[in-house]
């Protein structure tokens, strides 16, 4: 799942190529991804991309009318908001087919945006059978309920604010880090990396952390995300997934040696997801039960 570093890198990449270009046409191959109907997706045609940004794990492509913003003080911005979810991605091309992708087809393309010269633009794709990719076309990003209910962006939190968030909940720290309504931007992969760096069990109670543990967690959180973001700077979108994987120390490395202590990286699996951790670094050598209702082995 693309998280803050990838979404920020994609936003920067697309902004560097699309900002200032007119949108010539939008093709929708999967109507199911559209979560809004007004404005219609056709309203984007003829508008100009003025910027591409990130809100949490959401990609926001903002457009103005072709003749520029109104001069009477009103606002006429339309945003294309994309949540790539678990298996979504964006693919920029200078050789897009002029033939629209077939609606309801079996291919991965969900949305195609033609902008700039003929052939230029990008596809929004989704792999796998679980279709969770979502697209909104809105005049105000707060119209997207998921954005309106986001917690503060992880990179804007101060140490004191972060400590207040943790003290206000008895949830497990893994849950707190990945709950977008509490803190936005972190997903499954980077929460594993953050907790490994901070030497904390995923099942530790957020409320029970000492001040020293909160300090280390805060530093680890910013350090892991900053390092990942820097690693992706200047990368082509096509290479970002590989760059992300190469920088992970425990996530998706079940059965491999921990790069810090050499212990075997372990996994806890749930119905549709899993997370990884190092027993020596994080749980005092204890193995977390690998079953759906995971509990710490006694």
TrEMBL record:
This is Formamidopyrimidine-DNA glycosylase. It comes from the Bacteria. PANTHER family: FORMAMIDOPYRIMIDINE-DNA GLYCOSYLASE (PTHR22993:SF9). Keywords: DNA damage, DNA repair, DNA-binding, Glycosidase, Hydrolase, Lyase, Metal-binding, Multifunctional enzyme, Zinc, Zinc-finger. The keyword Lyase applies. Residues 249-283 form the FPG-type domain. Residues 2-105 form the Formamidopyrimidine-DNA glycosylase catalytic domain. Signal peptide: none annotated. SUPFAM superfamilies: Glucocorticoid receptor-like (DNA-binding domain) (SSF57716), N-terminal domain of MutM-like DNA repair proteins (SSF81624), S13-like H2TH domain (SSF46946). Belongs to the FPG family. Pfam families: Fapy_DNA_glyco (PF01149), H2TH (PF06831), zf-FPG_IleRS (PF06827). InterPro entries: DNA_glyclase_Znf_dom_DNA_BS (IPR015887), FPG_cat (IPR012319), FPG_N (IPR035937), H2TH_FPG (IPR015886), Ribosomal_uS13-like_H2TH (IPR010979), Znf_DNA_glyclase/AP_lyase (IPR000214), Znf_FPG/IleRS (IPR010663). Coiled coil: none annotated. It catalyses: Hydrolysis of DNA containing ring-opened 7-methylguanine residues, releasing 2,6-diamino-4-hydroxy-5-(N-methyl)formamidopyrimidine; 2'-deoxyribonucleotide-(2'-deoxyribose 5'-phosphate)-2'-deoxyribonucleotide-DNA = a 3'-end 2'-deoxyribonucleotide-(2,3-dehydro-2,3-deoxyribose 5'-phosphate)-DNA + a 5'-end 5'-phospho-2'-deoxyribonucleoside-DNA + H(+). Its cofactor is Zn(2+). It comes from Williamsia maris.
């Amino acid at each position: 799942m693309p998280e803050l570093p990838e979404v920020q890198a994609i936003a920067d990449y697309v902004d560097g190529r699309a900002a200032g270009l007119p949108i010539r046409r939008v093709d929708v191959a999967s109507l199911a991804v559209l979560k809004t109907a007004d404005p219609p997706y056709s309203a984007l045609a003829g508008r100009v991309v003025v910027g591409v940004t990130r809100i949490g794990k959401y990609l926001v492509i903002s457009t103005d009318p072709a003749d520029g913003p109104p001069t009477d003080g009103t606002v006429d911005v339309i945003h294309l908001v994309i949540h790539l979810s678990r298996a979504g991605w964006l693919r920029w091309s200078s050789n897009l087919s002029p033939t629209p992708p077939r609606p309801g087809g079996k291919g991965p393309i969900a949305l195609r945006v033609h902008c700039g010269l003929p052939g230029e633009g990008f596809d929004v794709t989704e792999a796998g059978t679980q279709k969770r990719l979502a697209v909104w076309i809105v005049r105000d990003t707060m119209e997207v309920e998921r954005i309106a209910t986001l917690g503060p962006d992880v990179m804007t939190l101060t140490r004191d604010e972060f400590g207040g968030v943790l003290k206000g909940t008895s949830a497990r720290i893994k849950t707190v880090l990945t709950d977008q309504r509490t803190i936005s931007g972190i997903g499954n992969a980077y929460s594993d990396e953050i907790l490994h760096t901070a030497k904390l069990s995923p099942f530790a109670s957020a409320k029970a952390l000492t001040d020293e543990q909160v300090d280390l967690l805060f530093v680890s959180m910013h350090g892991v995300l900053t390092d990942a973001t820097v690693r992706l700077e200047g990368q082509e979108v096509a290479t970002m997934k590989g760059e992300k994987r190469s920088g992970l120390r425990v996530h998706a490395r079940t059965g491999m040696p921990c790069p810090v202590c050499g212990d075997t990286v372990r996994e806890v699996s749930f119905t549709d997801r899993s997370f990884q951790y190092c027993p020596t670094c994080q749980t005092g050598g204890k193995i977390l039960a690998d079953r759906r209702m995971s509990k710490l082995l006694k």
